[in-house]
Amino acid sequence: MNTTANAADAYRDARERLDERLNKLNHFVRIHTEGQFKDKKNWGFVGDLNHVVEILDEAIEFLGGAREENS
């Protein structure tokens, strides 16, 4: 990052990195779904996604949103 960048430029850069992470997350969720499709009786896949939901709920709360119950 350019040390002379202003807050707006730094925010844009951070937002681009966030968007890249979200796209990557969607990619890996699709791969994970393929694994679950091949092993439908494995409850571990459910636990994996529930853990990711918990992490995302924390991020949502951090940014000012409300945690959703059992969704």
The parts where pLDDT drops under 50 for at least 5 residues are none
Main beta-sheet strand count, sense and barrel state: none
- Give me the number of helical elements: 2
Into which percentage range does the β-strand content fall? under 5%
* End-to-end CA span: 37 Å
Instruction: List the helices and strands in order.
Output: HH
Query: What is the helix content?
Result: over 70%
Shape: elongated
Structural class computed from helices and strand pairing = mainly alpha
CA radius of gyration? 17 Å
- Count of extended strands: 0
Question: Could you characterize what this model shows?
Answer:
By secondary structure, the protein is mainly α. It contains 2 helices and no strands. The longest helix has 32 residues, at 7-38. The protein is elongated and about 55 Å long. The model has no long low-confidence stretch (mean pLDDT 93).
